[in-house]
Amino acid sequence: MEENNTQNSSLVTIRNLSFAREQRVIFDNASLDIQHGKITAIMGPSGSGKTTLLKLIGGQLSPSQGSIVVDGQHINQLNRSELYALRKKMGMLFQSGALLTDINVFDNVAYPIREHTALPESIIRTLVLMKLQAVGLRGARLLYPNELSGGMARRVALARAIALDPMMVMYDEPFTGQDPISMGVLVKLIKTLNDSVGLTSIIVSHDVEETAAIADYIYIMSSGKIIGQGTPQELQQSKSEWVQQFMNGKPDGPVKFHYSSDNYFDDL
Amino acid sequence: MQNPKSLETLVGLFVVIGIGALFFLGLNVSNLASYSDTDGYTITARFENSGGLKVRSPVSVAGVRIGRVTAIDFDNTSYESVVQMKIGAQYNTLPDDSSASIFTAGLLGEQYIGLQTGASEDYLTHNSELELTQSAIVLEEIIGQFLFSEKEN
Amino acid sequence: MITFLSTIGHSVIATLTKTGRGALFLKQTLSYTFSVLCQPRLISKQLFSVGVLTILIITISGLFVGMVLGLQGYYILSDFGAEETLGVMIAASLVRELGPVVSALLFAGRAGSSLTAEIGLMKATEQLSGMEMMAVDPIQRIVCPRFLAGCLSMPLLAAIFSMVGILGGQLVGVSLLGVDEGAFWSQMQSSIDFYDDILNGVIKSVVFGFVVTWISLFEGYDAIPTSEGVSRATTRTVVYSSFAILGMDFILTALMFGDI
Hints:
The complex is a heterotrimer. By secondary structure, chain A is an alpha/beta fold.
């Protein structure tokens, strides 16, 4: 019964996804659902292919097997213009911000609006200032990306990601490398945006505490498989060793500290 | 960052200078100016040997260039060289018994066709053929003849 | 032996794959030509960085090449008492060969390398992915305008190079060494053919511009997105472009000036 509910309200449905890059298996038969209007977190140790998952959802990569359905459309069966039309409804926040370095903050946020609409400049100005106000950087609109701190760059990128009022925003490691204050700002921003605009958010992260604080549902991945899922509370109480190791940050456990290798003594 | 207006001005300047340079090459450096004789009429002449004559070699009368060679072909039956030349339209009073010779400008210079005007009352028209021709002077033959006559003496 | 063979095999396959990627990349780029031509603003911005910023090096090099040609040509031609043909020699060598080839080599070093570095860094900083996710095709928005700007700039730069070179040759030949000015220009005009020499030179420079810009953009786009990857790609751009220019020059010369 729970299953049926998620089926109906899920915006992204991934079934039996497999993906390999040059012999290295990144996903192995993974299935997950991203629910409408919720913050779904995908967590896992570094190198578990979380960013790849976002690229798969965005259609930048195509899976070797399985299906990815976004908003009712099979993403890897779309032609270019359909894919681009769908991407206009998705925002993505890259780890590095990915701001265009040769134009200033204002133009960066205005970029997708100018590209995809024929709105007059006065309306664009209003829209951009609204988005910048939402991330608290209206005063920084004339700065260039190289003059911004990491946290500010990420907030500008967030303003750009929501410039076209997308239905869904994907956050790639939004908290990595941030000082506690900008981390707090970002956590609050993601939560507020999600609740006030009714966005669907996908957060890929390995910062357990911050992510657990705002996520409605969490998937934990390791070696290309979903090894645990549930609400933050459910996961904290999970009996699975994997989940416990990850949620509590134990150095060794089912996820090995050592990269898989030959026997140490043989190697010496 | 450059102000977009001045950037566009500089780009405009670049394009203008570049096209200007092309014009300079076309008009000042090459013979483009002499291609202007597009209207004119074509005449042909047969030579036993057209030597180093080339397409676009000049055709002149009394030292004035009046046209240029447009084609050089080989006649399979008479084994002659058939030279077509285009004469400027304003030179329309050349007698039809004029003769054509192939000369060399200077000792090692390029070869050109010189026309010697005749006395006929009729003028050359489109597709006329010059009856009287004198072949190119081939330097080796002259040297050969010279050496031969030296020996005889 | 087997490993040796397999190494060769691997590198052959890798080269073929890369060539294929390059060709597909070119096809994609060309498919946007029309839509980009409709937005001249995109091109004019690139014409500035690709063309305008290259003028200085082109002009200075052209001037010196022309002056050297004037000097060397004078000494050799004066042995035969043929100083008057100095203009022909300078103009023919510049218009036919040195203009297109040297300006293309300078273009590869000045503009090509910066194109590769720019695109490579955009890739490394995820700007290209970011554009894709904003439903903007980076090939259309970033690559194609640069490509067209490169193709347009190259012939103009080569023409500027030749013009400045001829003026430099005239400076040395006529003003310093005393070749007769009238003979210098008139001999040049009667010997240099507009179609055979100038147009062929322009065609050469268009081909070089096309090839160099293609190599530069593709190397940037295909670069491994790390600082080392971008630096290697930049080196490859200059090396491959130079090879391509010289190789293409031979082929084009054989086609244009050969008697076959």
